[in-house]
Amino acid sequence: MNRFKIERISLPVLAAVMLWIKTYVVYKTSFNIKIENVMQELILFINPLSFLLFAFGIAYFFNSEKNRNRYVIITSFILGFILYANVAFYRFFTDFITLPVLFQTSNFADLGDSALTEIHWYDIVYFIDIILLFLFMKYKRKYKEFVPVRKVKRRAYFLVAAALLFLNIGLAETERPQLLTRTFDREMLVKNLGTYNYHLYDIFLQSKSSAQRAMADGSELVDIDNYVRANYVKPNKDMFGIAEDRNLIVVTLESLQNFVINNDVYGEEITPFLNDFINDSYYFDNFYHQTGQGKTSDSEFLIENSLYPLSRGAVFFTHSGNELDSLAQNLGDKGYYTSAMHANNKSFWNRDIMYKSIGYDYFYSASDYDITPDISVGWGMKDIPFFQQSVDLMKEMPKPFYTKMITLTNHHPFRLDEEDKFIDEFDSKSGTLNRYFQTVRYMDEAVKEFIQKLKDEGLYDNSIIVMYGDHYGISENHNEAMAQYLGKEVTPFVSAQLQQVPLIIHIPGVTDQGKGKVISKVGGQIDLKPTISHLLGVDTKKAIQFGEDLFSDQHHDFTVFRDGRFVTKDYVYADNTCYSKETEEPVESSYCDKDKEKARLELGYSDKIIYGDLLRFYESSDYRNDNME
Ligand code: GP9
Ligand code: MN
Question: Which residue ranges does the record assign to the Sulfatase N-terminal domain (predicted)?
């Protein structure tokens, strides 16, 4: 009986079915894919199958059992590995891997602690089907002679696979029209096409973007230029040049979200220094990060260029050779000495390469700091010594200087040495959230000592200090714990609001001694370049930029996230739903329609510039004579 059954099971089909079931189980257990109805569940269930049948079907072309088995095992392993890599990646980023991210290999070595906390020994269960395949192969070989598959059978097999693929695409199309044009929504792609087809599609996109640069020409800038001109807002004349010729210090505060400002854990302030400092600064409390998969590096890209990062991969990796018109270049032209300061390996996020395109005069990276084990934790040098040593380096810089500093301690998995814990952990099921408050508190201390040191070293008065949070620290994976902390459910509306990061602009002599102001205009990181440029007296009238000066009276309350969500004065568009800010409830979608179009247009134009490397044509006289002025 047993013998009869086993003889009839074909190894490729068995492998495909096991991986199919495994993929579905992984969908349900390891990813947070929102399912709204039975049809979506059905699509999710069948979506891995067509690809797997094709992939394993190739085994039927082999005419020796050894080769066929070898192919099946290797394919199972590779696909299983891709699936598992997505699981590990998802645990941290709540996102699926894209090809450009995968090739960011120079990051892998540094991911160390962060990656390890997301990989567990019991993850071996993700490979259980391969173990079963081995056992099956061993057992089966005893009984069965190898018979190559007949052509007709093979045809029938692939016909079934193709039919399944069309069924899948057909159902997906009815469920989610224009699926493939909304490619920034990876969850939607995986949900409808399946994780394997999604990766194939991703490969296709990658090749397309390489071709795009080759095909691009300056004429594509015409529409973009018109759009940017039409949206230009004039600087506020009281603010224009207010910090001219001062040193500019921009501080990227790692993973700092706005909800911790003026907030506490069991009665203890999380950011006591910043809570005071914002009274002496312009504090923007409606300001959002707009980063994608490139995280910190995306935020750097935004503030330097006032262009959006990409929906897939980190633009620092994918387009590091592009021509740019950055804040650093403009200040360099004005006689500033420009640099970036970050006590990490210089190649992380491909910074050493990309910083050349941005145009910094120098990059102070790990090798410029005195880093010993006692002043390191987690990802590297602790923030307090980082700031201290940085100020010493600033003393030596030619003046005026522009430097952009990036902190590191408040980074997932948010670990600290005992002596650096100034407040208690929060108590929830998420260790990540619990520890987050402590590392934020540590960073706050570091900033306090930094400002003091700038004063002590005589650098403070003649500088302007801009601080902003680069992106979220707590992903949606921790919604339950976050809901416990906030005391309310994390709906898509709340989740979008949680993308707020603090923006603090501190101008000694102007905003200190309590002369600060809370500014509640809706803005985002894209607005920083024009805002800062104007404070330093640099005109941006002719720049190709999508941001607007936050001090301008004409500034529009609008900010779009890289994934297409957006926020206006009265509405938040998230999860394909228009929410009223006032009631926090969904409203008729027409309220969001106009801004939805603006969001789509802007992201599209920005992508076009990056994919086509269009700024290389901007200075060309042909283009300017025809289309400018
Ligand atoms: C690494 C630091 C952290 O150098 O910028 O990067 P992140 O993971 O936040 O993008
Ligand atoms: Mn970061």
Answer: 246-538
Copy the structure tokens of residue 333.
């032209």
Q: Which ligand is nearest to the CA of 344?
A: 1
Q: Whose CA is nearest to atom 3 of ligand 1?
A: 296
Report residue 369's pLDDT band, with 50, 70 and 90 as the boundaries: very high
Q: What is the rounded radius of gyration, in angstroms, for the C-alpha atoms of the chain? A: 27
**What pLDDT is recorded for position 145?**
65
Residue 519 has which token pair? 């500014």
403 has catalytic annotation? no
Lowest mean pLDDT among 47-51, 77-81, 96-100, 394-398: 96-100
Beta bridge partners of 503: 284, 468
Q: How far, in Å, is the centroid of ligand 2 from the Cα of 309? A: 14
Mean pLDDT, rounded, for 173-182: 70
- Which of 296, 432, 531, 559 is the catalytic position? 296
Superfamily of domain 219-627: Alkaline Phosphatase, subunit A (3.40.720.10)
Q: Quickly state the pLDDT bin for 178 (edges 50, 70, 90).
A: low
List of residues 6+ apart from 216 with CB closer than 8 A? 611, 612, 613, 614
Give the pocket of ligand 1 (CB within 6 Å): 254, 295-296, 342, 344, 348, 406, 411
All CATH 3.40.720.10 domain ranges in the chain, comma separated: 219-627
Ligand nearest to the CA of 348: 1
